[in-house]
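Subject: complex prediction, re-run

Hi both,

The earlier run crashed halfway through, so I resubmitted it with identical inputs.
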Amino acid sequence: MTVFKGYMKITKSLFGMILMYMVIFSGVTLAMQFTAKQSEESSYTAEKMDVAVVDNDGGELAKGLISCLKQNHNVTYMENNEGIMQEALYYETIDLIVQIPENFEKNCLDGSEELRVTKVPGTYNAIYVSQQMNTFLNQVRTYKSAGYTTKDAIERSEIQENSEVKILNDRGNKGQMPSYGYAFRYMPYLFLTALCYVLGLILASFRKREVKNRMLASAVSLRRQNGESILAFLVVGIGMWIFGLLMTLAVDGKAFAADPNKWYYIVNTLMLMLVCLAIAFVLGLLVSKPAIVNNIVTPLSLGMCFLCGAFVQMSLLGETVLKVARFLPVYWYELVNEKLSNCVTMTDGIRSEILSGIGVQMLFVVALIGIALAISRNKQQEA
Amino acid sequence: MIKIENLVKRYGELVALDHLNLEIEEGEIFGLLGPNGSGKTTAISCVLALLKYDKGTIEVFGKPMAPDNYEAKKQIGVVLQNVAVFDEMNVRENIDYFCGLYVAEKEKRKVLVEEAISFVGLEDYTKMKPKQLSGGLLRRLNIACGIAHQPKLIIMDEPTVAVDPQSRNKILEGIMELNRKGATIIYTSHYMEEVEQICSRIAIIDHGRCIAQGTKEELKSMIKTGEKITIEGVLLDGENLTDIRNLPHVFEEDYEQQLLTVRCSGAKHNLVRILNYLQDKDIAFGRVFSELPTLNDVFLEITGKELRD
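This time it finished cleanly. Structure:
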């Protein structure tokens, strides 16, 4: 196992670099998870609006309406003075003004006169207040036509309970991407940079013409050398893969363990790791100078991550970009990842899409190995 | 130990080896001498089965050499022209790694590695990385990596290129020591002095062909020049020159700006005879040099060009 040990020794000497990429990956993942958590907390919060009421009626229905508004908004009274009203709207001390006309009960219920609602120009929230008031008045109108007194109709309309909305939250992420989803999303960056760079450098060392010749002249068969090289590649790759999964567990292990789709995540990352290993192998065959490895790996990893939705959400990417990205393996990884993150219940359709994505990655692995073999054969023929 | 017959290697139109024939016996230091591009490294690469060749046969230890002849490869050590070590490993790790390609047992290897380190004198540098070593030390590391497994046959391709004289002497002494311990060595170089100093038999290669082969004495006896005598600050006339030319064993003389150069065949007392003549004629002279023929003279006479052209 001399060749294998040689790979491991060189890997060990590059450990500082591997650690650097791990720290970058962990930092980005944790930062994104923290940001996502904050935005999650601010989601779905009901807002109260500042509503000013000019009550020109003072009747029973007007009071009922005001009481209804008070349930959901901050209500203040305002005198019927156009200047004051304009000033309040201009300085946005209130969001809208509701003017209740005289003979409100009589005129509004038979529909001959409507409430006057004046809002700050350019805001849309007032629509919801108008809808709430209309709902209330319609209910009163319905009860009245059924023979109820105004007082009873108001009381019954006011006690209408809000309909209960149950958010399906099977995986505890309130319909958002689970926190560990970020770790999975950024994993291509870790795998591409660390694996391609580290393995690219190692292969470059082994592919130096003199070293290669000395090894070819040695007593270890070429087949054994290749076998041990592949084993070393797999060990480094699996090491990196395990680190990625541990990072995910560190982010939110409990939630991940409870995720019914966790095995799909694991298989998807395993496939990505194999893709990255294959890319690293091709790269190592093509490049024999360490400086060039760096020049290739940086744009390759960043480019793929940006184009394929690792750094920027797929939904924000243009159609053309996504069309191009389809030719890159990371796109299929991210596609599967996104499906898994958004999926609440695994249907046959979603499962089929996920398996297709994983299958395409597998095809990339096969294609890249084919390219590597062709390059290898070509290089041998050069001799 | 090695038998090369009619070896032909072509790179497109270029014929790198042109029906090369060589036979190397066990226990000798065999020198392959030739100018840069003469085909020495190509020949070595073919022997090591690193290169496919177009025609001919190569036998090593009595068996045809092939990429999968691992029995033969086990007994061969290689010291290539350029330093072949890993920059990421230190001196000991490098030697251990390359020794490990031949010796699997850890304990045995440990002893061999220590012996190799001591043999090349790198005891004080074992933890240093190759980039921290000087050119000479790096060459020694390169040699240690090739010989640590104590092979029967060591192939050294210009191991002293770009090495300071001190390190070069150390390397040459080491090669002779390896030979005394029983290793057969093939040594390629374009430095004739080195080849003359350490090799028991020499093959001179040019344009991929072996143009002469034998011991250094045999090679030198192949040429006309036995001794070159140079006398400075001497005043001669035409008659004197004719007399000198007529002296026994003199076959060529040249006189220019008071500098006399006389070429004689390989007989004894040539210098004494010339100096006696000058003394008899009462001709004054300055410094006198007598040079025996070198391998460069052999090369020059056979090919019509200098070895380093």
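The radius of gyration of chain B is 24 Å.

- K.
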